[in-house]
Amino acid sequence: MDEVQHGIAAAYDKGIMRFLTDNHIRLNITPTSNILLGRVEKLKEHPISLLYRNGVDVTINSDDVLMFDSDVSKEYLRLYESGCLSAEELDDIRENGLKSIEEIIT
Question: Cα 22 from chain centroid?
Fold first, then answer.
């Protein structure tokens, strides 16, 4: 499976998003890390929603649990509470993250 760690800048270029989708490349995204490192200003505006809604395969992950005080459960909850993604969208991301790329393609 082809994956990219982080990769949120892809949300600002439709051509790159299309490339990721067409080539079944998954982005493993760490929202809290993106906020604390200044890559994203507000969680509600995190580009994961734009990526997901444009068909890019994304997973939600944590980055350095001790440094960022986060785990995967907290990441999902924060995205939901901020209004960035709906419960249905988060559940779809969760289910897709458990599948292999071959299952997603077919």
Answer: 17
Greater confidence (70 vs 38) lies with: 38
Domain, as residue range, for 96:
2-105
Amino acid identity at 102: E
> pTM of the full predicted structure?
0.87
Total structural domains within the chain = 1
Q: Which amino acid belongs to residue 65?
A: V
Q: What per-residue confidence (pLDDT) applies to 103? A: 65
Q: Is the pLDDT of residue 68 over 70?
A: no
Which helix (H) or strand (E) segment holds residue 20: the answer is helix 14-22
Token couple for 69: 């005080």
- Of how many residues is the chain composed? 106
